[in-house]
Specification:
73% of the residues lie in helices and 0% in strands. It has one domain. By secondary structure, it is mainly alpha-helical. The longest helix has 58 residues. The two termini are 62 Å apart. α2 packs antiparallel against α5.
Length: 223
């Protein structure tokens, strides 16, 4: 959750706790109790969404590390094949792609696995393991799967953020509706009404401090 979400969350909790102490003042079938239940459910929903968002963020970060590991493994496999291919004089069939593009790396891996088949005996004679084509294909698959998992985690994070925005809006509407009822109920009880207004108030976001202005050089005296 961002700063706005956290401030709404804290406001909703304060409102819930005050309402919990005063709920007995309201009719068991009245709107105030219904709104109180909505408030409690909204807080629970927001906290669940926040936990999912945090998990999605952690998964996305872990996914990025996993992509990096899979990328390195595939590049090492292609580099080993390219070294042997240079000695064999067929390195043009097993080029190394640029470092910055995973899709090119995957395509190079697929092509190398296919092109290596007729040269397998010669590759093994140049100290490549018997299963090097199988291992190369597995490295390609690992990178593709890691990219898909990372992208899925990012999508989950974005979806969770949108859900949190909606739930915060719902909480604000619930508290605003409760405020109208509280003002009617406690119109003659300024002490309780002041407690509610304090609880349902959303704290302002802290202002960023402006850097101190640089002193200006004094103007040169006129000749």
């Amino acid at each position: 959750m961002n700063d706005r979400h956290n401030r709404i969350h804290q406001m909703a909790i304060r409102s819930r706790e005050l309402m919990k102490d005063r709920v007995g003042d309201f009719s068991a079938t009245g709107m105030a109790r219904q709104l109180f239940e909505q408030l409690k459910a909204g807080i629970t929903k927001l906290e669940t969404q926040s936990a999912k968002q945090a998990s999605g963020t952690a998964d996305a970060r872990q996914g990025t590390r996993t992509v990096g590991e899979a990328r390195l493994a595939l590049r090492e496999s292609l580099t080993a094949i390219n070294r042997a291919a240079r000695v064999m004089g067929v390195d043009d069939k097993f080029p190394l792609p640029p470092q910055s593009n995973d899709r090119n790396l995957i395509q190079a891996g697929r092509a190398a696995a296919l092109n290596a088949v007729p040269f397998k005996t010669e590759f093994t004679a140049h100290e490549m393991p018997e299963n090097f084509i199988t291992e190369l294909t597995a490295d390609v698959d690992d990178l593709e799967e890691a990219i898909a998992a990372r992208d899925g985690s990012v999508d989950d994070h974005i979806s969770a953020r949108a859900g949190i925005d909606d739930t915060c809006d719902e909480l604000l509407e619930t508290v605003n509706n409760l405020s109208a009822l509280m003002k009617n109920k406690y119109a003659d009880n300024p002490e309780v009404l002041a407690e509610w207004l304090a609880a349902s108030h959303i704290e302002r976001a802290p202002r960023r401090q402006q850097p101190p202005a640089k002193p200006t050089a004094p103007a040169a005296p006129a000749p």
